[in-house]
Fold this sequence. Notes:
Elements: H1 12-23, H2 40-55, E1 59-62, E2 68-72, E3 81-86, H3 100-116, E4 123-128, H4 140-146, H5 151-155, H6 161-171, E5 188-196, H7 201-204, E6 209-215, E7 217-226, E8 230-231, H8 243-261, E9 266-275, E10 281-282, E11 285-294, H9 297-317, E12 321-330, E13 333-334, H10 337-349, E14 354-359, H11 365-368, E15 374-379, H12 395-414
Parallel strand pairs: 3-4, 3-5, 5-15, 6-14
Antiparallel strand pairs: 1-2, 2-4, 6-13, 6-15, 7-11, 7-12, 8-10, 9-11
The protein binds (2S)-amino(hydroxy)ethanoic acid and manganese (II) ion (2 copies).
(2S)-amino(hydroxy)ethanoic acid (HGY) binds near residues 132, 133, 361 and 362.
Amino acid sequence: MEPTHKKLRINRERFKQDFDELAQIGATADGGVHRPSLSPAHLEARAWFRQRIEQAGLVFRMDGAGNHSAFLRCGPRGAATLLLGSHLDSVRHGGRFDGPLGVLAALETLRVVNESGLALPVNFEAIDFTDEEGTLVGLLGSSALAGTLEKSVLQSPRGGRERLEAGLERSGLTEDGFFTVRRDPDTLAGYLELHIEQGRRLAASGTQIGVVHNIVGGNSYRLTFIGRADHAGTVGMEERRDAAQGACEFTLAVRQLLTEDFPGCVANVGDMAFDPGAFNIVPGRVAVSLEFRAPDVYLFDELERALLEVAASLAEQRDLKLNVEWLGKWDPAPMSPIVQNAITEAADSLNLKHMTLNSGAGHDAQSLAPLCPAGMIFVPSVDGASHSAREFTHWQDCVNGANVLLRAALRLAAER
Length: 416
Ligand code: HGY
Ligand code: MN
Ligand code: MN
């Protein structure tokens, strides 16, 4: 006779109803969502999440970093807690699966375990982390919970100080609050996250479940090339100290450096801000938003050095000054073999085809990895689309992922 926890499945209708309701909050006309962290739409999504938690008879919790969670005491007094979750915030004009899929599958897992009446060696908690996406800082709530958030990063956040202050004001959070939420590792039994792959490998190989073995590290800088604002009509081309020349040459050099010297790494110039920014003024300053990622710490450091060297030499060649502002990073993180094994066994118990792969996207799981055994379950993305309204995952794949989350969580609990 199969033990109950090896047969449990999620309630797929309830899970779908949650997903469809939540996707309406901050919905964009093209089928995506726009819910930057601590924006009105994000706070509305969090209020909805709290209402669903309380409706399920679970305990609602919020910490000083604004992390929202459902708590289920299914373990004995003093038991550790198994954390399951992801994030409800989105990138600007993003998709409706990136983050919510993991939070709602975690909530559904707690409901099923609660309804089963199972007594477990650990408690369960379904969590929505603040600002995973970095529209403010990046992995903000999860790094606060891990105790790795640096105060300096809040002084020059990559989303800008004004946006952070406005978000704190709107949500009633305080900067100090982010430094009161660190969890004692002994209180955590582990962390599990279901997420869309945001790439093409699972779909291309006809694989239903991805078992993540490593998450890349990411680093962000704002590089400001500083020349001299001049009249665009009267100053000869050779006399100009045109900041745009340095910024644009750097952008092209980034691509050449990565493709020639750093295969397996990526870098992105996602934004440029021209100052003064007018048709008839030679740009005096151009601020370039640079993000780069590498699968391991050695490459990560090498790539940082190479990129900053290229920026400095191009600025010098163009008689420009260069202002370098570090905006925060998150280290590469190997996933726990124990958690990977629980995911693999759960997928096998459901006869789902699985493969091991790394994550080119950053995730809250990499904040948790130094603290407790952490792991991630991926489900296929159609056409690898994400961070856009084109983001899509077939619903059966979402249900498969949620069932694997439920069973992997129960396996990890049983191993305590
Ligand atoms: O940017 C990322 O990799 C993640 O989606 N936050
Ligand atoms: Mn995400
Ligand atoms: Mn994302």
